Amino acid sequence: EKMGLYRRDPGGWRGCRHTSEVSVSWRPSAEFAGNVYRGEGILPASPQDVWECIKPVAGGPRTKWDQNVKDFEVVEAVSDTVSVCRTTTPSAFMRIISPREFVDVVLVKQYEDGTMLSAATNAEHPLCPPQPNFVRGFNYPCGCFCIPLPGEPDRTQLLSFFQTDLGGYLPQAVVDSFFPASIAGFYSNLTKAVKALKA
What we know:
By secondary structure, this protein is α+β, with helices and mostly antiparallel strands. It has helices at 2-8, 47-54, 62-65, 172-198; strands spanning 14-18, 23-28, 35-43, 71-77, 82-89, 100-110, 116-122, 135-136, 138-139, 142-149, 152-162, 164-165. Helix 2 (47-54) crosses helix 4 (172-198).
């Protein structure tokens, strides 16, 4: 529901980064003391190919192309569309940000117009106590919409929302410069991944 609200609510977003692949904007989060980031871009591939690259499945291609995902595991499959997942991330930002782990409940949804949504928010799970060598971070409602473009079967609008408390004791300035650069990298690497998938 929150993803739908973010998607429909155009107000208050401030642009902070623009590349040929993505336009990134932000506004203060209503969920925690940080920001929610919005990425929007058009990818040169069908919604099916884009979804293939980003869908939240164990052993999926995302760990290969997404530099911010080191490992992704499904802890518990609750239903066909809901699972509890653990994601680990490598150190980032010239090692200023140490490896993180996130435990989320993930929902996959398909809309009547063909749009696919992968949405997540943080969760606790008895099989996922905090691990040594990782800082536990928290994702607040976040996700990606793969939106078909009418009449353009080989192009897809990807609208994504990132809302993450990285945890630990990071200076706010580091967090504020990390996310826009990270989202730009996400779109750039995903564009390469969908092109490789088509090749």
